[in-house]
Amino acid sequence: MIRSGNPALKESTFLDLGTGSVVSREGGTMTLNGTVNKTGILLLLSVLTAAFAWTQSVVTGPDGVATVAPGIMIYALGGAIGGFVLALVTVFKKEWSAVTAPMYALVEGFFLGAISAVFELQYPGIVFQAVLLTFGTLGALLAAYRSGLIRATENFKLGVVAATGGIALVYLVSMGLRLFGKEMPLIHESGLVGIGFSLFVVVIAALNLVLDFDFIESGVEAGAPKYMEWYGAFGLMVTLVWLYIEFLRLLAKLQSRD
Questions:
Q1: What is the C-alpha to C-alpha distance for residues 216 and 220, in angstroms, rounded to an integer?
Q2: Looking at the chain, which runs of residues are DSSP E strands?
Q3: Collapsed DSSP state (helix, strand, coil) of residue 65
Q4: Residue 177, domain member (yes or no)
Q5: Domain membership flag for residue 67
């Protein structure tokens, strides 16, 4: 059974997709190398727009002090909303993923660049640390998965999916409270509870990478259509974005205690 905590890579994704000789005649089947290459393309696209958004989100005054640019919300909100819409389109129209996945990466890059600039102004050096931790985690878990040290058993999948759903529920409640001018106590603060919560979320986000690896490998073995390489890369990108943001939050909480 295929299961992933990532909503883009859910159990039913490969169901009813054509395989075999018909797919081969129409463009081939999904491969692991193809998915890896397309993941690299999506990451590059997001870095390009993130770098642009970063330069537009920071202004330096006459005194040489850098501050947040007035128009930063355009990139932050526009990227977040645009990325969400494109993610939904990609999930429901997987055959469009060769177009929508790159568009998602480009738009999401604007969001990442804007929020990264804000975090960097508050905590210099935090973005570099978060990037290193994100890709270090990706490399370590990929190596562990390929070597068999970590196996995506059914119980493992159930646990990660349940924890991911719980985190999503907490975040939804938190956003709902903010609409009424209230904050969920403790978890967003830099105390032990807040740091512990962020550590837990980082671990669950990282474990979702294992489910994504397993999911993509299952698609390759099932002979999914070629366009599913883009879809698999998109799903992995969604998890990496989440992991990066959670590392930023965790590092910010830790540095605010100094």
A1: 6
A2: 58-60, 66-68
A3: coil
A4: yes
A5: yes
Give, rounded to a whole angstrom, the gap between the first and last alpha carbons of the chain: 46
Residue 185 gets the label, from left (phi > 0), alpha (psi -120 to 50) or beta, of beta
Q: Are 45 and 110 in contact (CB under 8 A)?
A: no
- How many CB atoms are closer than 10 A to CB 133? 19
Q: Is residue 144 part of a domain?
A: yes
Closest CA to 54 of 108, 132, 111: 111
- Determine the longest span between alpha carbons in the chain, in angstroms: 67
Specify if 2 maps to a domain: no
Give, for all 258 residues of the chain, the pLDDT tens digit.
Answer: 444 556 566 555 555 454 444 444 456 899 999 999 999 999 999 999 999 999 998 877 777 677 888 889 999 999 999 999 999 999 999 999 999 999 999 999 999 999 999 999 999 999 999 999 999 999 999 999 999 898 888 999 999 999 999 999 999 998 888 888 787 777 888 889 899 999 999 999 999 999 999 999 999 999 999 999 999 999 999 999 999 999 999 999 999 876
Domain count along the chain? 1
Domain extent at residue 126: 23-256
Assess contact for 19 and 224: CB atoms under 8 A.
yes
> Distance between CA atoms of 205 and 195, rounded to whole angstroms?
15
Sole residue written with tokens 């646990």: 159
3-state secondary structure of 29: strand
Please name the residue that has the structure tokens 């990282």.
206
